[in-house]
């Protein structure tokens, strides 16, 4: 079961059909529009698995998503994209990341590349969750503008 949940989250950008799980996350983290007036519920077993797999990064990623802190910047006409994710601690600081492969944050290099202790950073996880939940702010730019943005990384 843990492997199935991990696969669901890791492959979430390719497997949008698997979004039956998203309702559990929406209810658990309060992203649903009708959740604001209801009392918090006991975490589901799915959330427990995700918390086990990703630890503190799962909690922090859901807070970033709660604050609508994920933008998907897509180039047109190529449809290539990169995510711009707010910092967990400050909305003024933003990190660019590819949800599956890279993030410009310090934690990505320290915890993932250097130490190998985490599967992904909170910004990558927030981007994956936002895609699954339809919570990304979509920004369309030209391919040239996207290329200029990527050169600065």
From TrEMBL:
This is SWIM-type domain-containing protein. It comes from the Eukaryota. Residues 83-132 form the SWIM-type domain. InterPro entries: Znf_SWIM. The keyword Metal-binding applies. Transmembrane segments: none annotated. The lineage of its organism: Eukaryota, Viridiplantae, Streptophyta, Embryophyta, Tracheophyta. GO terms for molecular function: zinc ion binding. PROSITE patterns: ZF_SWIM (PS50966).
